Amino acid sequence: MKHLISIDDLTRTDAMTLLDTAEAMAQTQSRRIKKLPVLRGRTVATLFFEDSTRTRLSFETAAKRLSMDVISFSARGSSVSKGESLKDTAQTIVAMGAEALIVRHSASGAPHRLAHAGWVDVPILNAGDGKHQHPTQALLDAFTIRRHLYTGANQPAPTGSDLDGITVAITGDVLHSRVVRSNVQLLTLLGAHVILVAPPTLLPSDTEDWPCEISYDLDEVIARHPFALMMLRVQRERMTGGGGGFFPSPSEYQRCYGLDSSRLAALGPQAIIMHPGPMNRGLEITAEAADSSQSVVTEQVSNGVSVRMAALYLLLAHGEEISQ
Questions:
Q1: For each successive 10 residues of the chain (324 residues), what is the average pLDDT?
Q2: What residues does each domain of the chain span?
Q3: Is 134 a catalytic residue?
Q4: Of the residues 2, 40, 54, 76, which is catalytic?
């Protein structure tokens, strides 16, 4: 694996290797001293051309847990505001000694372009590009689901565990979500049945070609008792007027597609509640549901560090032992 740009680039074996390596990384994080020396002296740069405190901090924490040096770049207030291109920025950061680039960009395909245009010769990790992909988010979601599926809790899953036979429902603003695209591909690759639930106005025009089921009725899907229900953030910043044209009103959206106490009860105690964050409490999910014992939102955040450690390790460690 030279880069991690898209779930499309992974085989089932690749995905299982990433998840199993993340389990090994997670075991080291219960120690008093959490740092591993396997990438000591190596340097990674986070190039964020789009704001995302949560993802950036998760990647930087993962790199530091592997004893890496981190160069943190943000487009806001940088030379990008003066017109510097993605190419020039990347080449400048690599010239400073970065041996891998973690890239988040508002333009779909930007990390792929950086990886394959020949501008730089270092591994590229996609931290989210436009409406396209967010592969490490999908991996941490699969990691979290797998743990609960096999242990009933956030405990290590057996090596080589897949998701064959389970149903995962993903609900909300599918149209603007890169998370959902990566999740549909990865969860399906691992054997899960995925159902997307959204109003027609919040579904992309090409979802008929996606390897999943489409539904407009959240209550009907909940009655089928999926193993996991993932609520997507309503990305009002990408909607004119905060939602105008996509749904009649926030209250109407919450009534039809929000997870509240009654839907939580109908879902049953066996299901886990997920959200990629940040949450719009009171819109796609109520505080009661978000803070319930079935919610694994904080586990997703914690597991994200282990998954991103695994991605960096597999791209850069070249066979060094995790247990060092």
A1: 95 98 94 93 95 92 98 73 79 97 96 96 97 97 98 96 97 95 98 97 93 98 98 74 70 95 96 95 96 98 98 86 54
A2: 7-133+304-316, 155-295
A3: yes
A4: 54
